Fold this sequence. Notes:
CATH class of the largest domain: Mainly Beta
CATH topology of the largest domain: Porin
Low-confidence stretches: none
Number of strands: 13
CATH superfamily of the largest domain: Acyl-CoA thioesterase, double hotdog domain
CATH architecture of the largest domain: Beta Barrel
Order of helices and strands: HEEEHEEEEEEHEEEE
Amino acid sequence: MGDFSGILEALGGSGNNTVEVSGEWAQGRALFGGLAAAITMEPVMRHVDPDRELRSASIAFVGPLSPGVVHVTPRALREGGSVSQFQAEAAQDGEVKTSVLASFGKARASGAVMPAEPAVGAPAPDEVEPVIYRKGVNPAFTRFFEYRYCIGSLPFTGATTRDMGGWIRFRDEAGPLGPLQLLGLIDAWPPATLPLLTERAPSSSLTWFVEFVQPLPAIEANDWLLYQATLDHARDGYGQTQARLWTRAGDLIALSRQTVTVFG
């Protein structure tokens, strides 16, 4: 199967944590980071106790994970009374390409309770013009997502604002979404550095830290989710960004930080 969840299902059913991914999911010469992260995480999700929810993941894009055969090696670092720590590496030709450190924790009674801040204001998705996929112009993988930009500026417009984002959902997925699919939706957006540029230039994530606000609400593949990224700093070909993801009802579901490289 070529859809996002189908690739993960093929990996889970392989018997040896191996899957082959087509170039349709590429961003330049490499697979797009959200899929690379989800592939690396998938065997971990099968090993952890179901009462322990994914709280955070630290992802290092060590090298380009190319279209083709990918092998993942998961490893339990520690399983305590409430928290489990796992590591996983995705490799090609014997070389590590993506590395993940994931933390899982089960819920427990606590007096520390604070609701998340409300979602940013945004027009409804049907009030925003869709982004039309253009082969050879947009990264190949973006054909699998629907975008509605309504926060900040578009890439390569020479903007001076820090914010970027809007609504997003999968184009052809079906069924409920979990943390692995949410990784794809978060990273499907371009880096918040790109609106600063006036000409097209390649850019990619170097490191990525994402936290999930548990328990996650029920999310279906055709649900619109609101994304806002903020550029904290950019200089010398690198940028530091932070982002948040909400449901249409305004529930905060994920927080993200990335160090990105910019070649322009």
